[in-house]
Give the backbone structure.
Amino acid sequence: MPDIAEPQVAVDLPETATQTRRVESAAVFWLLVAGGALLLLMGWLLPWFVEQTASGIGHSPMDVIVSSPTGVGWLAVWVMGVCMLALIAGLGYDVYAVMSRRVEPFRFARIRAGLAVLGAACVLLILILVSSRTELIFGNLTPNALVDNAVWIMLTGFLLIAFAYGARSWVVSHGGLAFAAVAFAIGGLFPLMFHQAPGFVVWGAQSAGIYILLALGLNVVVGFAGLLDLGYAAFFAIGAYTTASMASATHGLHWPFWIIIFIGAAAAGLFGAILGFPTLRLRGDYLAIVTLGFGEIVPDMAQNNLFGDTGGPNGISGVDTPSLLPGLGRVDIFGSDPRPYFYAILVVIVLVVLLMRNVERSRLGRAWVAIREDEVAASATGINTVTTKLLAFAIGAAVSGFAGAFFGAMLSSVTPDNFQFAVSVTALTTVVLGGIGNITGVIVGAILVSFVIFWVLPELQGWMGTVGSNVGVTQLGTIQYSDYKFIVYGLILIGIMLLRPSGLLPSRARKVELETGAESEPLAAVQERA
Amino acid sequence: MALLEVDRIVKRFGGLVAVNDVSFEVDTGEIVSMIGPNGAGKTTAFNCITGLYPLSDGDVRFKDVSLLGMQPHRITRLGITRTFQNIRLFSYMTAVDNVMVGEHVRMHSKVWDDLLHTRKARNEERVVEQRALATLRRLGLERYADVYARNLPYGLQRRLEIARALASGPTLLLLDEPAAGLNPHEKVELMGVISKLRDDGLTIFLIEHDMRVVMGISDRIVVLDYGEKIAEGTPKEVRENPRVIDAYLGTAAGQAARGA
Amino acid sequence: MPNGEAPAAVATRAQPMRPKPTPPLLSRMRLRFAAISGQAFIYFLIAGFVGMVVAEFVSKGGTQTGEEILNGLQIGGIYALIAVGYTMVYGIIELINFAHGDVFTFGGMLSVWIGAGLGALGLDMTKLATSNFGGLLAALAIIFPLTMLCTGTLGVVIERVAYRRLRNAPRLAPLITAIGMAFLLEGIMFVAAGSGNYEARKDDWIGGNAFTIGSVSVSWPKLFVILVAAVMMVVLQMFVRYTRMGKAMRATAQDRDAALLSGININRTISVTFFIGSALAAAGGTVYAIYYNLLQWNLGFKFGIIAFTAAVLGGIGNILGAGLGGFLIGLIYVFGSDLLGGQWGNSIIFAMLILVLTLRPSGLLGMRVPDRA
C-alpha cells in the first residue's frame, strides 16, 4: 500500500460567481422538496407514534382506510395517499436522475405540482369535513378523529412540493427569497398548526428559536470571520445573566424586558470583544482551545458569584415575564402560553437575519472574508485585522445576548447548568451541519439539530412505547433513549466531517475552500517569527 | 524631500543579518528597481518597508513620516501598497470583490451602516463597485469581473493583484517580482502597464530578476548583495558597475570588466 | 577591492544625518512585550509558584504544605500520563485530540471490566492483589499490559477511522471530528457506567504508608502513582531517543514530507504514536481507578483539558515537557484549590492556559512554537 498521500480530488469552482449563485439557489429547491416529502411521511406516520387521547389525536389515515367505506371523506384519503406516493416516487426519481446523470430530472414538473395541489386539496377537504360535521364520517371513528397535527403537517408538505415544482424556475433563481417566504409562512402559522400539541410550540420557542439565534450569532464568528469558537455558550450566559439580574426577584430590579434585551446584547457583545482579544494572534486550534477555556470559566464564575450575586449554583430565578406595553402598565400576555414568546422570537430572528444579510455583502463582510482567506494579504490591503476580528466576536456575541434574554424570560430562571460545554458544541453542530457561513444553512441546521436532540430524543421513549404497543413489541418502550444523546451527537459530528464537511447547504466557494483550502496564517505569527 | 526614504535599515533574524545598513531614496514619479542575486535580502527589505517585519534598526520615512513600528494596514492607509512575490489574492472571491477589498481604506461605512444597510452604505457600495470596475478596466480585466480569482490564468492573476493594490489610491506602489512566471509577451505588456501607471502619477518601486524588464523601465536601480547595497544609479551605470557584475557572474567576469 | 572605479556608480544622495527616531509608544510597548514575554513568563511562573507555596505554608502550616505537594505530584502524575498523548499526537499531526481525555477514562473503565472479566473466568484480581506483595505485582502485571494493549488499539482504530482521511483538510474538520469522537466515547461510557460515580472495585489494592518525611506521611498509593508516571515518562523518552521507531516519530513530527521521502512509513508511524499515547493514557486511567476506586463517564473532559494545558505548558511536542508540565499543573491545581477553594481549580488552570498561549506559546521546554513553521 503506497504511503504517499492520496492526491486531492480537484473539487473545483464554477467559473463565475453568477454560476455558483445559481447552484446555491438550486440547493434551496432541493431543500423545499426534501422537506416537503419528509413532512408528508411524518404526517402519515405520526399517529403511530403519538398516544391516542380523548382530543382525537392518534387515529391514523390507515385506520380510515381500513374502516368500512363510506362517503367522500374516505375517497379523499385514498386520493391523498396516492398523490403522496406518486410525489415521493417522483422525488426518488429526481435524486436518481441527478446522481446518475443518465436520465433527465424534473420531468413533468407541472404534473407533479398539480398532484401536490390535488393532495393538498384532499387534505383540506378532510380537514373541513372533520371539523364541521358532528356525526360519524369515517366508519366508526368519532369526529375530530383524524390527527389534527398530522393533517396540518401533510398539508404543509403538499404545499411545499407544489410550490417547489410549480414555481421551479423562480425558486432556483431566487433561492434565498423563496426560503425566506416559506420559512416566514411556516413560522407564522406554526402555533396554529400545532395547537393540539402545545409542548411542541414550547419546543419551537425555547429550543428551535433559541438555537436558531445562537446559530446565527456563531455563524458570524465561525462562518463569516473563520474564527473557530468552542466557548460560545459563555456569551449566551452573559446575556442571560445580565437580563435576569435586571428583571427578577433576586435583585429586586424590574426593568422592562424590551430595554434590557438590548443591554444584555450589549453586555454580551462587549465581552465578546474582551474574550476575543487574547485569541487574536493564535492559530486556529489554539484559538479554539482558548475559547473553550473561556466557555468553561464564565459559568464557573457565575456559579461562584464572582461578579456580584449571581445566585450561585441555583442561579437567578423568578425572572419576570415581558410585558407587552411597557410603561402603560403591565399587559401580561407572556404567561405560561408559549405563543407570544414564539412570535416575539420569530420577529427577532427575522430582524437578525436581515442584519446578517446586510453585513454579509458590506465592507465589513468582505473584510471578514479577506481575513479568513489570507490575513497577511488582508492586512497589506489596508484591513485592520484586530478591529475586524473583534467586531466579529462582538457582533456574534451580541446576537447570543439576545437569545440569552429570551431564554431567561421563557424559563423564568438561569442557572450555570444551562451554559455548559454541550451548549457550545450544539451551537457549533448546528452551524457545521447546516453549512458554515450560509445563513439559510445554519437556520436549517439549527432546526434539525434542536429537533433531533431536544424533541425526538426526549420523546422517543414515549413514541416507541406507542409503536411497541401497536406492533406488539412492548420492549421498545422501555429503552431509555435519551441516554443515547451523546452518542447521537458524536455520530452526527463525525458523520458530517467524514461525509460532507461543508454541511448541507454550503456556499459553493466555501465548500471548495473547506475541502481543499489551506489555513490562513495569523498576521501576528508572521510578524513574531520575523 | 524624497517620497520614500529608506535610512540605514537593518533586519536580523536571530544570528542572521538579512539586510545590513541599506539606504536609498525614491523620488515622486520615479520608477526604481531593486535587483540582486537570490537571497540578497530584497523581499525582506520590502517586508520591512511595508511593516510586515519589524525593523531591527534604521528607519523608513514616507513623506517625512516615520513608518517605524506601524502596522501594515496603517502603512497602506498612508498611501503605500504592495503586491506579493507568490501571488496572494483572495482565491475564493471574484475579481471585482478582490478589488473592492482594495477599496476598503477609502470607504467610510461604519459598523452600523453595514449592519443596517443605511442609505450611506448603499450609495457607497454602488460608487465603490463602479470604481472597482473602472480599475479593472484600467488594467484590461473588466471581462473577468465575475470570475473567481483562482480560476484566472496566471498572468491575469498578477494583473489582478496590481489592480487590487491600485484600488486604495496609493501614492507609492511596491511590486514584488511582478514579472515572475510571465511569458515574454506578457512581460512586455507588464512594462507597458507599469509605465502607464507612472504616467498617471504613481511612484513605483519594484523587485525584479528579469534584466530586460528592469533595464527597460527603471529610472534608477538599487543593487543588493548579501543584504548590503553594493550599487545604485541609472541602468547604464549599474550595468557597467564591476561590483554588480561580480555579484551576478562571479569575480572573474568582474575583473574582466574592470580590466576592459 | 577594485580600484579606479567611477565613484558615480555608487551614487548616494548626500544628506544630513538625521537623528534616529523612536517608534511610537504603542509599537514600542508591543515590540518590547513580544521580546520579553517569553522570559517574563518563566519568572512569573516561578514567582507565582513560590508565592503559592509560601502562602500555603503561612496559612496552613508545614504539614499541610508537604501533604499538598505530595497530592500535587500524585495528581500531576496522572496528568502527565495523559499529557504525553496530547503532546505526541499534536507534535506529529498537529491535531488536538479532543477524544484523548475520554480515552483516559475509557482505559480506566476497561481496567475494571478486564478485572471483572477475569474474575468471571475464575481469576479474582482483587484477591490476588490484596494477598501479598507478590500477588499485587502479579495483578498489576496482568491488568496494566492488557488494558494498555486494548486501549492502544482503540487509539489506533480511532485514528484510522476518524482522523486519517482528514489529515490534509483544514484545521476545522479534524477538530470537530475529534470533538465528535469525544462525545461518542463519553456516550458509550454514559450508557455503560451510568451517570453517577462508577465504583471500580470493592477493596483498595494498595494501602498503607511507605515512609514519612518530617510530619508528612507518604502513602503507598501516592508513591505508586508518582512512580508509575515517572517510570513511564523515562521509558518513553528513551524509546523516542534510541529506537528506530522513535527516530521515525521525531522525523515525521519535524517534516513529514522529508520523512516520507526518507522511506519512513508515515501511516505506521502515526499509528504507533496514537498507540503509545493511548496506552499511556490507559495507564493513567488504570492508576486512577486503583487510587480513587471511582470513575465517572465525563471525567475525561475535565482531565483532558487540564492535561492539555500541561502539555502546552511543558512545550507542545516535547515528551519530557509533558511530564514536567503535568507535575507542575498538578501542583498548581492542588495549591490553587486549597488556597482559593475547590471550585476555582478549573478556572485557575484555564487562566494558566490562556497565559501560556499568550505569553510563551512555545512552553517551558518547547522547541515547537504552536504555529505553522
User: Anything to note?
Assistant: The first strand of chain B starts at residue 4 and ends at 13. Chain B touches chain A through 48 residues (CB under 8 Å). Chain B has eleven helices and ten strands. The mean pLDDT of chain B is 90.
